Every structure is written in structure tokens, then in C-alpha cells.
Amino acid sequence: MLDLIRSFVFREPVDPIALGIPQYHEIIPRKDARDLKTIRQKLDADKYETPEAWEADIDLMIQNAIHFNGRESEVGQIAVAFGSRIKELRVQQGLKKRRDSEKPGGDQEQPTAKKAKLS
Questions:
Q1: Which residues of the chain have pLDDT under 70?
Q2: Does 118 map to a domain?
Q3: Domain count along the chain
Q4: HEC letters along the chain
Q5: What is the pTM of this model?
Q6: Burial 5-44 (b: 16+ CB within 10 A, else e)
Q7: What is the CATH number of the domain that holds 15?
Q8: How confident is the model at residue 119, as a pLDDT?
Q9: Segment 82-91 long-range contacts (CB within 8 Å, at least 24 positions apart)
Q10: Residue 11 needs a FRET pair 20 to 30 A away by CA distance; which of 2, 18, 38, 92 works?
């Protein structure tokens, strides 16, 4: 539950004026800014060609938070914890995929879709 409460940091695009950090886009260029709302919109619009592209945006969001705020700041610590949790989930998913492929018929090649749907 704590993760859900702390995730507010990433839910919406950074509003430099409202947050009193007008230099934000000087440090994090607009083209590199990421947040969960924007990532979700890209998912819904099938903008990710691969799961790795989605992962890259998640990683960029985390790195932006650490770069702008510092690793030791409260936001930086939330970003580090979020990144650790994402890595845990990736490992769990990888293990699940391996177990599935060990089932009879699990190693048969499946047709691939043009774009990965991650939702």
C-alpha cells in the first residue's frame, strides 16, 4: 500500500511552475520527460513496439527523478525503491516465462504480434 501512496511522484507530468522548479526542463529536456500517465497513454495507443521499449521509458522516468532530485532526496529514494520493485517484477516475470516454456508444448514457437500489448 505504501508503494501506491508514494507513486504520486510519478503519476502526472512534472509541472515546473506549480512545483516551483522552473529550471526542470533545462535539466530534463521535455522530449525526455516521462511519467506514468504519459507511459499509460503510449500503452493505450500501442506506441511501444516491444516490451523493452516500455521498460526503457520506465527506466528513463526513474533516472530523470534521480538526476533532477539526487539519489539521497526523498524523491530520489522513492525512484530507487520504484526501480528495485520493477526489477523484482521483471525477474518474477522472467521466471514465470521459463516455467511456462518447460510445460509440454511450452517451447513451441508462438506467432508474434506486430506490437506488444503490455496492459
A1: 1-5, 95-119
A2: no
A3: 1
A4: CHHHHHCHHHHCCCCCCCCCCCCHHHHCCHHHCCCHHHHHHHHHCCCCCCHHHHHHHHHHHHHHHHHHHCCCCHHHHHHHHHHHHHHHHHHHHHHHHHHHHHCCCCCCCCCCCCCCCCC
A5: 0.75
A6: ebeebbeeebebeeeebeebeeebeeeebbbbebbeebbe
A7: 1.20.920.10
A8: 45
A9: 82/3, 82/6, 82/7, 82/10, 83/59, 85/3, 86/55, 86/58, 86/62, 90/55
A10: 92
Grid look-up 521466471 returns: 95
In a domain, 36, yes or no: yes
Q: Give residues with Cβ within 8 angstroms of 21, minimum separation 6.
A: 14, 68
Q: How far apart are the first and last CA of the chain?
A: 21
Residue 109, pLDDT score: 47
Say what the pLDDT of residue 105 is.
Answer: 54
CA-to-CA distance for 48 and 20, rounded, in angstroms? 32
Indicate whether 108 belongs to any domain. no
In a domain, 116, yes or no: no
